[in-house]
Amino acid sequence: MRRFIFGVVLLFCLSSANRAHASAIYDFSLPVNGAVSAFDIQLTAPDLLPADGLLVIPVTSPMVTSLTFGTPGFSPPQSVIGLQITPTSTLVGLSLRNAASAPLLFTVAFPGDFFVFNRTPLTTGTFSSVSGSVVSTLSLATANPVGTLTVTSVPEPSTVLLLGSGLLCIARRRLRNRRSES
Q1: I need a surface site. Which of 33, 36, 97, 176 has the fewest CB within 10 A?
Q2: Nearest Cα to 82, choosing from 26, 130, 38?
Q3: Per residue in 61-75, pLDDT tens?
Q4: Is residue 172 part of a domain?
Q5: Segments forming the whole domain that contains residue 118
């Protein structure tokens, strides 16, 4: 009976623990386009972003965990990315500028020119844009490149630690009980 009560208490503690949220990684990329190099930016949020208003994120923000854009003259302090999650899609806009504030890649109008990805707020995976257009002071091969958005959710280490410690406690208790029965 004592083992049963211990097991029930342990299961209750494990199931009612406040689990940590997962980190969400949003990776947006565009291919080489004329004189403009390929672009890739990775944003990390504490959790999957909910449907909400437009977020304007400086590319120098701590939320930006990776940025690749080799176009000469690119000035990160003057550049931002726009991100909006709606109930049915994710929109991404760019304002990548050089030191003279001239646009190297720029989505002019919100939301009409933003890159649109058909996904709900809690959906993860890789998505291709269904629309989106850019302008630049440099020559472009196309004003409508196809963007790629990859959204992943990574569990926090504390969640895995909580589960692992609970399993270790159960195993230790069973081992003790077997030794005491011998």
Answers
A1: 176
A2: 26
A3: 999 999 999 999 999
A4: no
A5: 20-163
